[in-house]
């Protein structure tokens, strides 16, 4: 009993430790900043929600992050889903090496990946911009989507697809009507993970961004001059949207199971 109580207390301490920075961000989004510093509480206000897009550079950086995250997520989900299907369902020469490369990409430090991509783009004389950022984000998110989809694929009953083909369904029809709905939870989880990895990435992006500024890069660059309260508001909104999507996904999964 005592061990269970200590474990419960330890768990809540860890949860509080993880949630504390988020709580500070949310609170200081309502801080009535009167000076350069936004690190001391100076009163309550809703002004920064009303002036959310008042700083052009910050607004452009957020827009770039969202566009890049959406574009990289779409590409990553398509390619990662096909890779996950291949690894989970089929046998082919080089499958072991492919599995090794997928997990190696997950374990590779972002510093190494960023430096290697920078070397590649410089050697190939590719101008660094939003396109190179999208390519970089696809490369480091692809393995996460593939692994998530693969984990879902290996649990599927192949007899369902065989039954669909026996009933006259084409290969594409079987995939669209049987396989894709069955693996959709894994695809959706991979998509959310890819989007989250993309929109908050700093290390890899800082190597390949060129003149393109993203939300994390803008925040780090503004540290010396003072981070404006709008950053906390935007972070709060992004966090809130993520929570809503996660809750909606959990409720949808529970409804399907019931």
What brief labels describe this structure?
258 residues; mainly alpha; 76% helix; membrane; globular; Bact_Polyamine_Transport
Q: Can you count the beta strands? A: 0
Largest sheet: none
Provide the β-strand percentage band.
under 5%
Structural class: mainly alpha
Instruction: Give the helix proportion (percent range).
Output: over 70%
Shape: globular
Helical run tally = 11
User: Radius of gyration, rounded?
Assistant: 22 Å
Membrane topology: Multi-pass membrane protein
Pfam families: BPD_transp_1
Transmembrane segments: 9-30, 66-88, 100-124, 130-149, 178-199, 231-251
Keywords: Cell membrane, Membrane, Transmembrane, Transmembrane helix, Transport
Q: What do these coordinates show?
A:
The chain has 258 residues and is mainly alpha-helical. The chain is built from eleven helices and no strands. It has helices spanning 2-28, 47-50, 56-89, 95-107, 110-123, 130-153, 158-166, 171-199, 203-208, 215-221, 229-257. The protein is globular and about 70 Å long. The mean pLDDT is 87. Belongs to the binding-protein-dependent transport system permease family. CysTW subfamily. It is found in: Cell membrane.
Short description:
The chain has helices spanning 2-28, 47-50, 56-89, 95-107, 110-123, 130-153, 158-166, 171-199, 203-208, 215-221, 229-257. It is mostly helical and 258 residues long.
